[in-house]
Amino acid sequence: AKTDPKEKCVQFQQHMRLLRDQHLAIKKDLERAIREHEFTLHFQPIACTQTDRVISAEALIRWQHPERGLVAPDDFIPVAEETGLINEIGEWVNRQVCSMQARLAEMSLPLPLALNVSPRQLSDPDFVSKMKALPMETGCDPSMLSIEITEGVLLGDIPNALETLSSLKEAGYRIVIDDFGTGYSNLAYLHNYPIDGIKIDRVFMEDVEAGGAIVKLVLSLASALGADVVAEGVETIEQRRWLSENGCHRFQGYLYSKPVPEDRFLSMLHTQSRI
Ligand code: C2E
Ligand code: CA
Ligand code: CA
Ligand code: CA
How far is the CA of 153 from the centre of ligand 2 (A)? Predict the structure, then answer.
């Protein structure tokens, strides 16, 4: 039997109410998380395809939830973005990563680090001035910090993208395009922006398995732009070998290491520096 349209309408309204309530609940939960410092950073090494040594790392946020345990960013960053709470969370992330870079340098481990910034953060009018203050406040070297943004940022997701990115670049930070190849196929915009690096999205590891025609194209594009390349989501020795043989020197993925807590990341670095 068909459901009567009126009944359907009631069901829809109930569904929307449920969604709104869930959204509100996560928002409240996130506000507490900010107050109670429930966030933590994991670090995923970026290694050299030829020497297998750690050459950099990406900071990735986790939420140490009192009931739910360790919550992955995909389960809360979207709500944080919608509610604007991402700005406050992101400020914490940026300060943590900058301090970490300064501490590494003090330990004679001058390793570049990367942090993620969402479009909503970049459109915050205070974002640039806060980033500019961090080297003085934390002792970090901005040239050792990459700001990872997604392709959408370059294509009108945020107003004044060029101005914002140029100011960050002027402040000494590196600008890196994350998830490259998943957003748009229009490449015409690329040379207009101050881009230091490109991260090839992990969906392209399938292309590598199939000969790597697309990845080769991205590598030569990056080289024409003078940008470094990191291959993301590298899970097999064969993928790493292909990258090494085709001039891609940086890789990140489960083959080398999953993202790990800070203490484990530091012990990896100390072990490496003794070898
Ligand atoms: P992303 O920036 O593209 O980060 C890479 C994601 O791929 C991470 O997921 C990482 O754990 C996962 N990954 C790494 N190697 C492999 C692999 O070999 N295979 C597979 N299948 N996955 C791999 P994670 O940590 O869950 O982060 C998800 C996304 O959340 C990130 O994607 C990023 O967009 C966002 N995110 C994470 N931390 C932050 C942050 O501090 N601020 C903002 N705004 N976004 C963040
Ligand atoms: Ca990233
Ligand atoms: Ca990525
Ligand atoms: Ca992503």
Answer: 14
Whether the CB-CB separation of 62 and 71 falls below 8 Å is answered with: yes
| C-alpha closest to that of 218 among 190, 237, 256 | 190
Share of the chain above pLDDT 90, in %: 80
The Cα–Cα gap between 239 and 205 comes to 7
Could you count the other beta carbons within 10 Å of the beta carbon of residue 117? 22
Calculate how far, in angstroms, residue 225's C-alpha sits from the geometric centre of ligand 2: 20
Candidates 72, 76, 2; CA nearest to 32 is 76
Pocket test for ligand 1, best of 60, 74, 180 (most atoms within 8 A of CB): 60
C-alpha 180 to ligand 4 mean position (Å): 10
For residue 21, give the amino acid letter. D
What are the phi and psi torsion angles at 112 (to 5°)? -70, 145
Classify the complex by whether its ipTM is higher than 0.95, answering yes or no: yes
Tokens, residue 246: 């085709």
| DSSP secondary structure code for residue 173 in this structure | -
φ, ψ for residue 23, nearest 5 deg: -60, -45
Mean pLDDT, rounded, for 176-195: 84
**Buried b vs exposed e over 148-162: b needs ≥16 C-beta within 10 Å?**
bbbbbbbeebbeebe
Amino acid at 228: D
| Secondary structure of residue 275 in the 3-state scheme | coil
Direct distance between the N- and C-terminal alpha carbons of the chain, in angstroms, rounded to an integer: 72
Q: Rounded to an integer, what distance in angstroms lies between the CA atom of residue 25 and that of residue 31?
A: 10
CA distance 103 to 93: 15
Q: Look at residue 275 and tell me whether its pLDDT is greater than 80.
A: no
How far is Cα 202 from Cα 75, in angstroms, rounded to an integer? 20
